[in-house]
Amino acid sequence: MRSRGLFVLLCAFILVVTPAAAQSDNISAAEAKAEAAAQRVGDARVKADAASSAYLTAEAQLEQVNDQLVSLAAVVEQKRLELAALKKDLREFAIYRYTSGGTEDSASMFSAGNVNDAVTKEALATMVGDRKADVIDKVKNAQAEFESESAKLASQQKQQKQLTDDLAKKSDRVGAELQALQVELDGLNSVVAGLKESERIRIREAALAKARETARLAEAARQQKAADEAAKKRDAPPAPPTPARPTFTGKFVCPVPGASFSDSWGQARSGGRVHKGVDMIAPSGTPTYAPVPGDVTFGTDGLGGRSWFLYGDDGNFYYGTHLSRFGPREGHVSAGELIGYVGMTGNASLNHLHFEIHVGGRGNQVNPYPVVAQYC
């Protein structure tokens, strides 16, 4: 089995910065090895479970053999006590025969090899008529059976003990194998994690480098554009005079009180357009009001979304767009009357009212920021 140190060295070697394709191949190869190791760990775990189960079964069987030996020993002990009692009766009978003038040799009656001879059996038959001699034979038979069964059980116990020991060794061996495989799997998983982290860092650094390059190119393009525009201005005829600020015959009302805004007049927009209004930023649903009295109509288009068109009594045209909802009615309205709600319909990425002022009628747009800054 590979050691953990080998995996650490392997991980350190592979984590050297490599091209994207090679790094991806390294990750795939490491993942394949980890999956194969995981399969081996699973197989080894099945073997370990089977070995453990077999060991426990053998151990239980050994306990049963030991219980059988104990039970048999108890039976034989009972028979031994019965035999001892009969021998005591024989001894007393022999003493009686001897003291009453009998001719039997009492010593020979008590000898171990003479317990079944004719004289002893005759003495026993004379002493008791309840067939105690047969009982003695049964006791001896029981003793012989005990010795035979004891030998068998001892042999079985020895075999079972050997089997149990072998299974215990096998269980330990399989467990060690499983542990070694788990170490291998942990090492491979560490390699995979290291490779993925290296790839994540490489991708992030590549993205940062690309972003820096994109920013550099954009700044270069901006500077070039500024230089080109400056050159055009130098070569262009003088600009016409700036249109005069609109005049109001009555009080001008802020279209979105509390909104935030800045002077974005002339800034570039999508499609080569430039910004010709002021963006009044406020939460969706904020009311918008008629800045002057006049006739208001509602409409919708793809660029502005929902819009209101106000033809002021002062002769100027006012335009508000990106509404979430229209006001309650069209027609003539007073200054400060509700005519719509802030939203982000059309070509918009945040909730705001795009507000325009056309001096003297629709089409003559002027920068509305100074007016909005004064009244809002």
TrEMBL record:
Gene Ontology MF terms: metalloendopeptidase activity
Membrane-spanning residues: none
Coiled coil spans: 20-82, 139-198
Skewed-composition ranges (Basic and acidic residues): 225-236
UniProt KW keywords: Coiled coil
Pfam families noted in UniProt: Peptidase_M23
Matches recorded under InterPro entries: Cell_wall_metabolism_enzyme, Dup_hybrid_motif, M23ase_b-sheet_dom
Domain M23ase beta-sheet core, chain residue ranges per copy: 274-368
Segments of this protein annotated with the region Disordered: 219-248
SUPFAM superfamilies in alphabetical order: Duplicated hybrid motif
Protein name: Unannotated protein
UniProt lineage: unclassified sequences, metagenomes, ecological metagenomes
